[in-house]
Every structure is written in structure tokens, then in C-alpha cells.
Prior knowledge:
Elements: E1 20-22, E2 32-36, H1 52-65, E3 69-72, H2 83-92, H3 94-98, E4 102-105, H4 116-126, E5 136-140, E6 144-148, H5 160-170, E7 178-182, H6 203-214, E8 220-225, E9 231-236, E10 239-244, E11 271-278, E12 281-289, E13 299-308
Parallel strand pairs: 1-5, 2-3, 3-4, 6-7, 7-8, 8-10
Antiparallel strand pairs: 2-11, 5-6, 9-10, 11-12, 12-13
Amino acid sequence: MKSILFLFAVAIQSFGQALFRVADSELSSSPVVIAYGDMRFTDPKQTNATNPKVRRWLVDRIAAEKPDAVLISGDLPWNGSVTNDYAVYHAETVPWRAAHILISPALGNHEFHGELHLCLNNWWNEFPQLLGHRWYSIALGSRLFVLNLDSNSSLLPNSEQAAWIKAQLASLPSSVQFVFLNMHHPPVADVQAKPDDDHNPRPNEIALANLLKTTRTNVRFVVCAGHIHNYERFLQDGVVYLVSGGGGAKPKPVVRELRDQYRDTDFPNYHYVKFVLGANGLDVDMIRVADPAALVPSWQLKDHFEVPAP
Length: 310
């Protein structure tokens, strides 16, 4: 079984290789990856910035799915400098550790709410296997590869992180079919008019989309982002771009552009996204909390699509 602390992973420090590797033998026969973000773990008495009831529902439901990995796209704490926010995360995610689920977090902007040194120390104390790394990669078996990015750092051409991404992609084993890019700020999203434009795609992340557009490789890219507390889905330049920010943070309505392939009008969208790797590709479901006001959770399958193998 896999460990939340990557006890079955082999650390590799090479610039062009995965920091962690998980063997095929440690994965399910049809590996399952779950992606979501924007939980804002904090004191459960705080019910404006986040919904602690729904937050716990999602944790329990994800544990019941028995995924091989959970990609967290950032804003795991409400305030990264508050040590207790990580203590709440640790307490509320006991079911994940009991199920030996591999947790793959990316840094969000809320991880940096407060003094930088303290914020990073809190993150690395919770995830000691990542000490010294703000971006890193995981070879999740022979067919799946995960790049966990830090969109608080530069992704512009010639930046250190962009060079690392290029090196990672250039060194992919030939067996890899799908590369997940797990990050907080979305490169592609529904563009909102003022005054609701503060979460629109920024030049920093658009640079990543341009990099992927011009990268020649025999893999499929799936970009999982958060930051917008809703769900959005796009296909651009052959790349799947998801916004999955329904982990518990205060919901944000969006005006959907025609290019957004998710057309449902229900709101709010507390949810997670489930990927199942099969012989022909990825089978993908968006699972939504049906009624956040209910006393007990019920769930809806609200989106389904497939990503064919290359």
C-alpha cells in the first residue's frame, strides 16, 4: 500500500527526473486519481470563509473512493502562517492516513498568508517529504506522471520553474501516457468582467499554457487548478484544463463562456474530480455535493468526460 509520507516512494534529486516514484505494483489495477482544492482548513468555528461541514464530507467521501493519489491544488489552509490551520487539516484528514492515500499538494496563495518563512515552515512541517521543494514531480506508476507547480513563483519563459518543467517533460519515460499538472492559479478559466475579474487567468499562468501548446510530446496533458471556488472545464490546444476549487471554501459564482464545456447552472459546486485510468485512457467524473444545507451528505454525478490515451 502507498503511504501519505511516500514511504514506498524513492526520492530522486536529478533536475530532469521525478522527485518521487511509486511502482505499478503499489497502485490499483485501474489507478484512481482524485483532484480538488480550496478547502481552507481552519478552526471549525469559522463558517464564512469555509464550510467545515462540507469540507469534512468531502474528506470522508474521498477516503471511501480509495484513490491511489489525491492532487490538492492549493489553499489547503485558510492562513498559511497559522500553525493551527495545519493542525485542523491533520485532524480532519485522519481517514486519508487510515486508508494510506498518497497526498500530492501544490502551493496556493493562502499557503502564503502571513510571513513567508513561517508559512513555508508550516507547509514543510506537515509535508516533510517535500522539505526544500516548492515544486516537484511524482512518477505514479509507469503511465501517469504528476508535476506539482507553484503558481506563486514565476512560470514565465526563462524562469527557473519553466526550465524545470521543460526538463521534466523532456525526460519522461516512453511509457508515460498522461501528465497531470497540479497547480493553484488557473491558466484557462471563464473570464469575468469587472468587478469580478480578480481571479481571471494571469500572464504567469498563461505562459504555462503557451509552453504546453508548443511542447511536442506523445502524452496527454491534464491541468488541474483551483483558486476559483467553482468547477470549469476546457479543452484548449489539445490540453484539458480544469478548475476544481470546490473543496469547502466560500463558493464563487461564475459567468460561463461558450468555450466552457461544463454547462450546468446549479450552484454552489462543492465537489471533487475522479480520474480512473483504463486501457483506453482516463475516465473522468465530477462528483458534487447535492445539498450543502442537508444534515447528511448526498452526491451527484454532474460531469463526465474521457481523455483518450495518446
